[in-house]
Design a protein that fits this description.
Blueprint: H1 2-13, H2 16-19, H3 33-58, H4 75-80, E1 87-88, H5 94-102, H6 110-118, E2 141-142, H7 152-167, E3 180-185, H8 192-206, E4 213-219, E5 222-223, E6 226-227, H9 232-237, E7 244-249, H10 253-270, E8 274-279, H11 298-306, H12 309-319, H13 325-347, H14 355-359, H15 367-374, H16 380-387, H17 400-414, E9 418-422, H18 438-442, E10 447-449, H19 454-466, E11 470-475, H20 486-498, E12 507-513, H21 531-534, E13 540-542, H22 547-564, E14 567-573, E15 611-613, E16 619-623, H23 625-640, E17 645-649, E18 652-654, H24 658-668, E19 670-678, H25 683-693, E20 699-705, H26 723-736
Parallel strand pairs: 1-2, 1-3, 3-4, 4-8, 7-8, 9-10, 9-11, 11-12, 12-14, 13-14, 16-17, 16-19, 19-20
Antiparallel strand pairs: 5-6, 13-18, 15-17
Helix pairs in contact: 3-5, 3-6, 3-12, 3-13, 6-13, 7-8, 7-19, 15-22, 16-17, 17-22, 19-20, 23-26
Length: 738
């Protein structure tokens, strides 16, 4: 820290010789002296924020010291854009943030805002003290976590949504000609998430669809301790068809500003993606605890010091006669004094004081309003137009797949911004026909196929949701989610948390999953791993088994997303999609009529509420999805032998319907949890823990699938819970108590 500070001061003092030589450099005609000074102030503010963060950390009063030193050329990128252009910023984009704040009248002080984040003060204006992030709603800067490249798919989705909102005739969050800017480092440019997002952006443009996305790679040549080969970023991105490439020296303010303006104007005019390669340096190491000399040569560190962008701008100011070296240093020290004064002021401010305060923005819930919206259908004439004459309530009883299909149409009729998209969902209608006919009835602007890339699917949803739409993406199989799951965990579920509820990304992610498919399968088409979802704070997980519940729960998820910004996962049991019978062939026991809108309020399914079948007093079976069907059949057989059962369908895996489960458990004193997920990390662990926490003292047992991946064919039956397992466990539990 001291080395960077001292080198800058000594170098600026040495500019006296240049100033006294009489040589003068002229500014470009489109760059005023006032603008240069303003940008220099933004750069100075960013630098001294870094120095103050380390000062606070040394006093035990600050918590985050990943800085922007060496990247201050990104102030020019902010100057080249409009304050209404949404920005998803790299964690070294401090000068961008300071300059963006200057562009908005009446905004708060960006220097104080950032320091509030450094000390985790509760009054910090974007995250409320939950993290140090660059973000402010009035600046159109969305807070981003430091997960490498995870924000690029969202940026892709936002760029897609800017024009799609207008195409649907809706009011957009951002202006019609907005450019979405996304900044990241050279190390992030190598991440599969980044390469996938860039590929998707290029392909969208190739298809002739608008994609106003400006990708800004702030290339400092190193990722933590791993160097990026010289010339690699230009080699990888400099000549890619469909991706306009611009490059600038981030240590040269004039070059950076001129090039950034050209790049931003190109994207704004052409509505195509562009890549701005901003060559920077990294000063003061990766973070405050990083000892750079342990892995970098001294001559490389010295070379970076010589390319300090603040020195470059100071030289420009002196060469053009705008400031003397002494005036540059006065400005530098004046900013230091102001930032340190602010640091002392914020260091003692209150922080979050309780768990309730911390988690408050995670999953806001207004159940009465959700119920109202869920029960509200589109006007009759719109429903009739969407369904094409025959309304679903006038059709015969439906299977699970049919019920979901009709409910999707009802949601799209009710919510004009609802989009259904994913792999094969449009013309084909999905692998299992669940979305068949939606393209024809709702149109290609609202039902469309995506690339075969789950990160892109979820990124489109993230961008669409934060832009005011209601995305309903489909992940074709649960096993396909796992390579993109961080888009749910690290991006979707965290946005409300790290923006203190100011930003939301509502969505309903439909996922076909679980086992028991016949004639098709293996692990990649039969997957029961839901643990990866259940530990994501605030995530809603719906898992309907019955057709009537499926429609009501889909409407609930859409309403929760619309009203509360909920991120919902809607897990659909593949093996039950087209099932019609429950107990005997031809009984149609697994079909149900589609309820008319007049009955929606009465049969609303609130988040976290279970459904109970039967009133037996001997045994409670708790399950969901495929396990529900098995449990109902077992209960029927036991009833015939005089063993009274009640079957609880969880319906929601998060939030778990704990009160309902406890009530039904107390009614019999014996509980068997039928868990088709794995024994380790499965849902039954949560159910049994909830019973123990509630003080339930009755008998408890569970049957669960083995800790195994699901193999192909009949071998799957060896590791999945079977109906025989359920019946045997139920009999044993009752026998032990008699």
């Amino acid at each position: 820290m001291e080395q960077v500070d001292e080198h800058l001061i000594e170098t600026v003092k040495g500019l006296d010789a240049v100033a006294g030589s009489g040589a003068r450099r002229a500014l470009p005609p489109d760059l005023s002296a006032e603008e240069v000074l303003r940008l220099f102030d933004a750069q100075l503010g960013s630098r001294h924020l870094d120095l103050a963060a380390r000062w606070l950390r040394g006093r035990g009063e600050g918590f985050y010291t990943i800085g922007s030193s060496g990247h201050e050329g990104n102030a020019a990128v902010a100057a080249a854009l409009r304050p209404t252009d949404p920005a998803l910023l790299h964690y070294r984009s401090g000068a961008f943030f300071v300059e963006r704040a200057r562009q908005v009248d009446g905004g708060s002080d960006p220097l104080r805002d950032v320091l509030l984040g450094v000390v985790a003060a509760a009054e910090e204006p974007i995250s409320g003290g939950r993290h140090k992030v660059f973000g402010r709603r009035d600046l159109a800067v969305l807070p981003q976590t430091s997960t490498i490249a995870s924000h690029l798919p969202r940026a892709l989705g936002m760029a897609f949504a800017v024009d799609r909102v207008r195409k649907l005739g809706l009011e957009g969050e951002y202006p019609r000609d907005a450019v979405v800017v996304c900044s990241f480092g050279d190390a992030s440019a190598n991440h599969s998430t980044a390469t996938g997002a860039v590929n998707a952006a290029v392909q969208v443009g190739f298809r002739g669809l608008p994609m106003p996305l400006l990708l800004v790679c702030e290339d400092n040549g190193i990722g933590i301790s791993v160097p990026t080969p010289d010339g690699w970023v230009a080699h990888a991105y400099g000549s890619r068809p469909g991706l306009e490439y611009f490059t600038a020296d981030g240590a040269d303010l004039v070059d950076a500003l001129t090039t950034a303006r050209r790049a931003a104007d190109w994207v704004r005019r052409h509505r195509r993606p562009a890549f701005l390669h901003l060559r920077t340096v990294r000063l003061m190491g990766h973070a405050g605890t990083d000892v750079e000399s342990a892995y970098r040569r001294a001559d490389r560190i010295a070379a970076d010091l010589r390319r300090d962008p603040l020195i470059g701008t100071a030289r420009l100011l002196v060469d053009t006669g705008l400031l003397t070296p002494a005036e540059v240093l006065d400005r530098y020290e004046g900013t230091r004094s102001r930032v340190l004064d602010l640091a002392r002021e914020v260091a003692g401010l209150p922080r979050l004081r309780s768990a309730a305060e911390v988690v408050a923005p995670l999953a806001p819930a207004t159940p009465s309003e959700v119920a109202r919206v869920a029960a509200e259908a589109a006007p009759p004439e719109r429903r009739a137009a969407v369904f094409g004459g025959t309304l679903p309530e006038d059709e015969p009883p439906m299977t699970l797949a049919q019920s979901i299909n009709r409910a999707l149409l009802d949601v799209m009729a009710r919510h004009p911004g609802a989009l259904v998209f994913g792999e094969d969902v449009a013309a084909k209608g999905g692998v299992y026909g669940v979305t068949r006919g939606l393209l024809r009835k709702a149109g290609a602007a609202r039902v469309f196929d995506t690339l075969l890339d789950e990160q892109t699917v979820l990124g489109l949803a993230l961008g669409a949701g934060v832009s005011g739409l209601l995305p309903i993406p489909e992940i074709q199989y649960l096993a396909y989610l796992h390579n993109a799951e961080d888009q749910l965990r690290g991006e979707a579920a965290t946005l409300q948390f790290f923006s203190d509820g100011q930003y939301r990304n509502p969505m309903v992610v439909r996922i076909a999953g679980y086992g028991y498919q016949k004639g098709f399968g293996g692990h990649f088409h039969n997957d029961d791993a839901v643990g990866v979802l259940r530990d994501v704070p605030g995530l809603v997980i719906a898992s309907p088994g019955r057709p009537d519940d499926a429609a009501a729960m889909l409407r609930t998820c859409a309403a929760a997303a619309t009203v509360d910004g909920a991120v919902c996962v809607y897990l659909e049991p593949i093996a039950l999609y087209h099932t019609r019978d429950l107990h005997a062939d031809g009984d149609d026991g697994w079909t149900a009529p589609y309820r008319p809108p007049g009955e929606w309020a009465e049969h609303h399914v609130p988040l976290g509420r279970a459904r109970t079948y039967g009133e037996g007093t001997d045994l409670t079976l708790v399950s969901w999805a495929n396990g529900l069907a098995m449990s109902l059949r077992v209960a029927a057989r036991l009833e015939r032998e005089g063993i009274g059962c009640r079957v609880v369908d969880l319906r929601w895996l998060a939030p778990l319907p704990v009160a309902d489960v406890v009530r039904e458990a107390e009614a019999t004193g014996r509980v068997l949890v039928v868990d088709e997920t794995r024994r380790t990390g499965g849902v039954s662990e949560g159910v049994l823990a909830a019973l123990v926490d509630a003080g339930f003292t009755g008998r408890m047992a569970r049957v669960a699938s083995a800790d195994s991946f699901i193999p192909l064919g009949d071998a799957a039956l060896h590791v999945l819970v079977s109906e025989r397992d359920v019946e045997a466990a139920a009999r044993e539990l009752v026998r032990r108590e008699r």
